[in-house]
Amino acid sequence: MMANLIFWLILGATFLLMEGAAWATHKYIMHGFLWTWHRDHHQPHTGFFERNDYFALVFSVPSVLTIVLGFEVPILWFLKPIGFGILAYGIFYLLFHDIIVHRRLKTKFFNWLIQKSPYLQRMIRAHQIHHRCQTKEGAEAFGFLYAPKKYAPK
User: Fold this and answer.
1) What string of pLDDT tens digits covers the 154 residues of the chain?
2) Are 48 and 104 within 8 A, CB to CB?
3) What are the helix (H) ranges across 35-106?
4) Fewest CB within a 10 Å sphere: which of 11, 28, 41, 100?
């Protein structure tokens, strides 16, 4: 029972801390030395996939490694919930950023959900403001699952 509680606390903490890690990665790596991968995400392009999608593959590596190590090395059990926390953040990122914000999968349900959710409206507006800048420098609002209230639609 206590082990389950600790597992879920570590997973939840990892999930929450991932927003800070994602913010820093977005600001300093995606808009930094790996702008060549991220650029097409800020500019019109054709096709479903973007170079920016490489980041999903790269970011899956720590999740997979920590989960596998957590299962394979008993003393490193705590890596399992860390890996699953990273995975959970990745799933939410895919859902919110790629599917809801960028509408890479169009459904009427998400349109309805956006209309009903002030949180989603704020996230979408913050991301739209982020995308006004089509260059490496000058962007703002680097978060993926959190946006300050200043980005709430007026």
Assistant:
1) 888 999 999 999 999 999 999 999 999 999 999 999 999 999 887 888 899 999 999 999 999 999 999 999 999 999 999 999 999 999 999 998 888 888 888 788 888 888 899 998 999 999 999 989 888 898 999 998 888 899 988 7
2) yes
3) 35-42, 54-72, 79-93
4) 28
State the pTM of this model. Answer: 0.90
State the Cα–Cα distance between residues 140 and 25, nearest whole angstrom: 13
Q: Which two tokens stand for residue 31?
A: 């808009």
List the chain domain ranges: 2-151
CA 32 – CA 149 distance, rounded (Å): 26
Q: Which two tokens stand for residue 152?
A: 């709430």
**Tokens 């403001």, residue located:** 129
Q: Which residue has the tokens 């490489």?
A: 54
CA gyration radius, the chain: 17
In this structure, are residues 82 and 88 in contact, taking their beta carbons and an 8 Å threshold?
A: no
